[in-house]
Amino acid sequence: MPNNNDLLSRISVDPNICSGKPCIKGHRIWVSLILGYLAGGESIETILEEYPGVEKEDILACITYGAEMSRN
Prior knowledge:
Elements lengths: L3 H5 L2 E2 L10 E2 L6 H9 L4 H7 L5 H16 L1
Antiparallel strand pairs: 1-2
């Protein structure tokens, strides 16, 4: 399993992309959207089917990002 730093490098926060909201690097998919799907009971596999090009590590990165932000 990738370490947290490797996972977090998959998340981008850029004021010129998605109004600065954290998103999966290379995609315009918000971290909060993915976390919302997971909180609603969607599986990682279902999310991956819905978003071609997104990898399992991207989903894990969203979870890691959410965990890190909740610590601050």
